[in-house]
Write a structure and sequence with these properties.
Length: 235
Amino acid sequence: MWGALFGDQVDGYKDAFVYNGVYEIANAPIKACDPQWKLNPSDLDYQMTFGRKTIIQPMDATPTAVFPQYQTIRQLPKISTGNEKFDRYLIGVVLYLEAKARKVTIQNQRQISVRELVIADHSSEQPLVISVWQDFADVDCESVCGRTGKFDVVGFTALKVSGHKGFSLSTTMSTTIIHSPQGERVDGLREWVSKHRQLLSDMKSRVIGVRRSSDDKTIKKISALKLKKVGFNVS
């Protein structure tokens, strides 16, 4: 069963839980879950809610630290089965982050923020694009801004498949960005990063080059395009 934390609760409860710890929780009402918060259709239709009267008591004073089983880019299924979300964890090295969030118009002429993030890892030569939406684009990404040159490892949860620009991923309302992930696989990826910084620098340069070329939009006549098709260099 899932429990959702909002606003100041995130900081208030961040030290109360340890991953895979066992707790006794009191005064946390069980309510119907909004379908948008469900990671999978098989999840329960209810969720816990936390308030000022909620009491969280660890059952073991020294729980064993068990870290998430992170997956690589190559392990991601490339075919979507509908509104599927990943309930496993993904890690990657930050190569590129769009300088600032863009505003896009959706249904009912409502505008929302989106920002493009590109990550890589040792399992794939092809970087992965993640479309970061809403508050993630405005708030969470700020702490990632300085990581593109340091090649820090960042973790993600609850991403969904997006058809934008080929295979890519997109954040959801359930997504968490883990700025300092831990675990054996994370340590292995960090070690790989330390040995392949030049490779990552080259990948970053290619990603930036592609982004800059797509921003340089010029209007060409049909006659110029025909010349380019048959092999002439059109500038």
